[in-house]
Amino acid sequence: MDSAPVSVLLVDDNSADRELAKRAIRKEIAEAKFIDIEAEEDFSKALTEPAFNVVITDFRLGWTDGLQVLDYVKKQNVAIPVIMFTNSGAEDVCAQGMKAGLFDYIIKRREQFPKLPVSIRAALEFRRTREELQWQAARLSDLLERERKARAEAEFARTEADRANRLKDEFLATVSHELRTPLNAVLGWAALLANDKIMEMQEIRRGLKVIEKNARIQAQLIDDLLDLSLIVSGRLRLELERLDLVSAIQSAIEAVRVSAEQKRLEITELLDPKAGPVRGDASRIQQVVWNLLTNAVKFTPEGGKIHVVLQRVKSRVTISVTDTGIGIRRELFPSIFEQFRQGDNSLSRKYGGLGIGLAVVKNLVDLHGGHVEVRSAGEGQGTTFTIFLPICLLREPLEQEDRDGQPAPAIPDEAAAALAGLRTLVVEDDLDTADLAARVLRDYGVGVEFVLSPEQALRRLKTGQFDVLLSDIGMPGQSGYALIAAVRALPPNQNGNIPAAALTALARSEDRQRALLAGFDAHLAKPVDPDELVTLVASLARRSRRGYQRER
Predict the structure, then answer these.
(1) How far apart, in whole angstroms, are the C-alpha atoms of residue 209 and residue 2?
(2) Closest among 408, 365, 410 to 238, alpha carbons compared
(3) Is pLDDT of 400 > 50?
(4) Which of 114, 135, 275, 547 is deepest in the core (most CB within 10 A)?
(5) Over residues 207-217, mean pLDDT
(6) CA–CA separation, 516 and 509 (whole Å)
(7) Are 81 and 124 spatial neighbours (Cβ–Cβ below 8 Å)?
């Protein structure tokens, strides 16, 4: 223990006794330091700024007693050892002290003074050993907790694997059932029609309708399986364009109208043609709405209602499909969009189907940068599915047809004209990406300057004049978010209001939302299509040349 600094708080209002105690201690612990406590104010100050690791106290003090000193010290730090050194104590005082945490009790006699350094060494060694044991116990507890978590994770993984295998087996059985059911009707009626037995025309038409209906059911099952396979493997590609959502939704409604009428279901709609604009794959959005409507028709009893709403909510376009059907229990919400899941997942499901329609919906909406939510008050209370799609904020209306009635070119003349003489600053730490953007834009007469970091960009914006800012998000040092925050803090004459777009590989819907909230005017995900880049910059340029002032 000699290597550890020893600092003794010596509480005794008899200065002669204090000096005798110090002399005895220094004979064995030469480096020991002392803090003399003679009065109450000295003791209070010492407790507020503890600079000692052992306390020696008399029992009888003019302003308190040793047991009170012990109590105060232990409340401050229970680990600090306290030794009582007194000639006025008694056995009951010693017993009380030991119960309260006193380390040692020494009688103040000449022959007992040499015990003080021995007791100090023992006390500090005891403290060190106890703290070591506490550390070891904490470490052991941590190891045990890690082991417990590892076992729990392994058990969870086994449970999930068993669940996945069970779902796979159920799915294969369901596929067999769902494909065989319409196949049975097709083969049965085909055999009847092929029979030489004369049939009435009405019966023949009925058979052909049954064959057609069940063939379509099989085709849809196969399409859903193929779509899910493409989505899971990452091979599904969207044909992105400016969407007419009203048309897509109405087409989906018409596709399910016959099925709805057979169950006497009333379909109503409230479609806002000005809810957009939205950019996406028209056929896939129609498929999403069709899937939700098919679900509503399937799970709504005869005579029920289905209501479809298209509207704009803040920076999103929402499409909601509400039915008066069987509803969904709240505990099923987390798994409702999982593959091969329905509320009742057994072979005896009343409503049939593979249980992948909602999984396809979720994945297609995710690919469009949106998300889908479900609400239901419970069984028998109906269900509402709501799709949230990002608005294409800067995609201004372009003429859809030229004077000859032909589709407009990918880059209209007005867009190309808006680019001529434009000054664009590109912030990109990847030289190949920056060079590609510069090459594409320069072909349209855009003056392009690129820098490698947000710091360089800020210096150029403060000294030069630019019409458009394009910036990556993930860069070494400062991020694109930090850059746009700094840009928006600049005065207008230093490009503080410059139209800006995030050009980034962060392509999720939450990434798009974060970029817009940070101060960017648009978000374009990599890999960037050259035509999209040119159209975006042209749209930004038109705002710049109109003296666009960013709303704050």
Answers:
(1) 100
(2) 365
(3) no
(4) 275
(5) 81
(6) 11
(7) yes
Ranges of each domain in the chain? 7-113, 241-390, 413-545
Lowest-confidence region among 6-15, 259-268, 507-516, 520-529:
507-516
Count Cβ atoms below 10 Å from residue 514 Cβ, excluding itself. 16
Q: What is the pLDDT of residue 339?
A: 61
Strands 305-313 and 266-271: parallel
Distance CA 296, CA 253 (A): 11
Burial of 6 (0-12, 13-18, 19+ CB in 10 A): buried
Q: Using DSSP, state whether 516 is helix, strand or coil.
A: helix
pLDDT band at 181 (very low <50, low <70, confident <90, very high): low
Query: Is residue 318 over pLDDT 90?
Result: yes
CA distances from 358 to 196, 305, 337, 480 (A): 45, 20, 5, 36
DSSP characters for 154-222?
HHHHHHHHHHHHHHHHHHHHHHHHHHHHHHHHHHHHHHHHHSSS---HHHHHHHHHHHHHHHHHHHHHH
CATH class of 413-545: alpha beta
Q: Which amino acid is at 460?
A: R
Question: What percentage of the chain exceeds 90 in pLDDT?
Answer: 31
Q: Has residue 22 got a pLDDT over 60?
A: yes
DSSP element (H, E) containing 228: helix 201-233
What does the alpha-carbon distance between residue 330 and residue 378 come to, in Å, rounded to a whole number?
A: 6
Helix (H, G, I), strand (E, B) or coil at 258: helix
CATH code assigned to 7-113: 3.40.50.2300
Please work out, in degrees rounded to the nearest 5, the angle formed at the alpha carbon of residue 314 by the alpha carbons of 312 and 319.
35
HSE (side-chain half, CA atoms, 13 Å) at 80: 23
Superfamily for the 241-390 domain: Histidine kinase-like ATPase, C-terminal domain (3.30.565.10)
Rg over alpha carbons for the chain, rounded to the nearest Å, is 40
Signed CA dihedral, 21, 25, 27, 33: sign only: negative
Supply the angle between the helices 454-463 and 480-488 in degrees, to the nearest 10: 20
Model pLDDT for residues 500-516, shown as the tens digit of each residue: 999 887 766 667 888 88
What is the rounded CA–CA span in Å between residue 443 and residue 437? 10
The b/e string for 416-441 (b: 16+ C-beta within 10 A; e otherwise) is eebbeebebbbbbeeeebbebbbebb
Between CA 357 and CA 363, with CA 360 as vertex, the angle to 5 degrees is 150
Q: How many CB atoms within 10 Å of residue 480?
A: 26
Handedness of CA 22, 28, 33, 35 (dihedral sign): negative
Same fold, 7-113 and 413-545: yes
The pair of three-digit structure tokens given for residue 437, joined into one six-digit string: 């953007």
**C-alpha–C-alpha distance, residues 220 and 398, integer Å:** 36
Would residue 389 be called left, alpha or beta, if left means φ above 0 and alpha means ψ between -120 and 50 degrees?
beta
